[in-house]
Amino acid sequence: MVSRVIPVDVFDLVIFGGTGDLARRKILPGLYRRFLAGQMPAESRIIGAARGELSEAEYREQVRAAIAEFVPKARQDTAIEGFLSRLQYVAIDATGTNGWAQLKGLMRENVVRAFYFSVAPGLFGDIAQRLSEHGIADAWSRIVVEKPFGRDLASARALNAVLARHFNETQIYRIDHYLGKETVQNLMAVRFANILFEPLWKAEYIDHVQITVAETVGVNGRGAYYDKSGAMRDMVQNHLMQLLCLIAMEPPYHFDPDAVRDEKLKVIRALKPVPPEDIVRGQYGPGKDEPGYLVHAENPASRTESYIALKVQISNWRWQGVPFYLRTGKRLRARASEIAITFKQPPHAIFDDASGWHENVLVIRLQPNEGMNLMVMIKEPGPGGMRLMQVPLDMSFADAIEDAEDVPDAYERLIMDVIRGNQTLFMRGDEVEAAWAWTDPIIEGWEARGDRPQVYDPGSSGPEDALMLMHRDGRRWREIRE
Ligand code: NAP
């Protein structure tokens, strides 16, 4: 199977923060790959915008260097000149007057205009306001807003209100790159395009769900920033919440942006408050050769968590009594993200206890090696009676696609969705606010109690108490491994 490329309309994409880390590592390399795939119509242009006074030639050289660094060598062919020729640059100050008239002069009529806000969140409102005041945003325009979208409900509401002053909700693309991952979308395909799973997708048949996003890296380099956020704000409120929604939502009436987002919103609103005993927070301690979180965070008194595990319950008919265990953390044993849905035992056991029964588990791996595995029981081959063994039905994505390198990464896919005007994989304003409305009391709770995170060893699976969170329910976390 080869992935199909459907060209998009001609566009002008302005990247505010076009010289920043995200633009260099993800956005520009992603656009280059889409260019190589033939998805970018010839007249499309990319305009970098930042305060630095760069000539067009200097900017192109910066982008060439970014592509050399972040695109696999095999993809760096001579086409790069063609790609670079699409690039322009404007020196602009998001908080001042410099550069806006020039940007307006560059805009063309009757092509899609997309404005990617790849800058610090404090500048989102300034840019939206100036785009509108300078008449740069028109009916063709759309804006892409990076995370974090607020740090609590009040700030998210304020940001939504500022953006709404200048743009309609249908023009605002709040990005969560987890939703652009192939497997995450596959989760929807598996659930809603097959009859197999949906009848079993409920409390009657599902024992519990585990969602794990584990990183091996610490917060080095961004410690001071991260310390104001923590794992709950940085990962759970957005990425893990989105994954939970896709597992738990009802089938939408159609694969349509608002139909999908309406169903996700209902899940978020149905989340129960989480009591303190169902929350475990951790901070990585020092390792053999590396200092611990407190040094990285440059704050010896920090109570910010670099790890969190939660037992989450959804109060609706489908999920009554089914715990969703979420965990995410830094400096853990392996870099691995997965969702595991564990089914219940068959109602009656016809095989002996000794036959080695295991639960059916559907594992959706997000990284590394995106793919799905369904763990099923079969008879152990050979004579000697009926012994059972667990084997994976492997739906590894790389195996199904001839050239997995051609599969767009999350950012590429999402940027192309912006150009197409498809908001399905972007968060709507009310979704983000509902997520904060659930998150805020949890954070306020531990702040009011003065809870300290438990220290865990770097390279481990996280704090001891997180193991207990599941042990006391008679369950176990899956091993964190690549
Ligand atoms: P960064 O490396 O600090 O880059 C910031 C960019 O904004 C630079 O191009 C900078 O260039 C420009 N800029 C700063 N002040 C400006 C102003 N007043 N007017 C116009 N441009 C200005 O930040 P980043 O890591 O790329 O992050 C960008 C956004 O993406 C942030 O919201 C971040 O939370 C989000 N994000 C980043 C990552 C990541 O992996 N980096 C991941 C997820 C989300 P000048 O200084 O020359 O103006």
Radius of gyration: 24 Å
Biggest sheet: strands, sense, closure? 9 strands, mixed
Q: Cα distance, first to last residue?
A: 26 Å
Tally of helical runs? 15
- Write down how many β-strands occur, each being a DSSP E stretch of 2 or more residues: 15
SS strand fraction: 15-25%
* Envelope shape: globular
Descriptive notes:
By secondary structure, the chain is α/β, with parallel strands linked by helices. The protein contains 15 helices and 15 strands. A nine-stranded mixed beta sheet has the order 14-13-12-11-7-10-9-8-15, with helices on both faces. A six-stranded parallel beta sheet has the order 3-2-1-4-5-6. Helix 1 links the parallel strand 1 and strand 2. Helix 9 crosses helix 14. Bound molecules: NADP nicotinamide-adenine-dinucleotide phosphate. NADP nicotinamide-adenine-dinucleotide phosphate (NAP) binds next to helix 1. It holds the Pfam family G6PD_C. It catalyses: D-glucose 6-phosphate + NADP(+) = 6-phospho-D-glucono-1,5-lactone + NADPH + H(+). It is an enzyme of class 1 (oxidoreductase). InterPro entries: G6P_DH, G6P_DH_AS, G6P_DH_C, G6P_DH_NAD-bd, NAD(P)-bd_dom_sf.
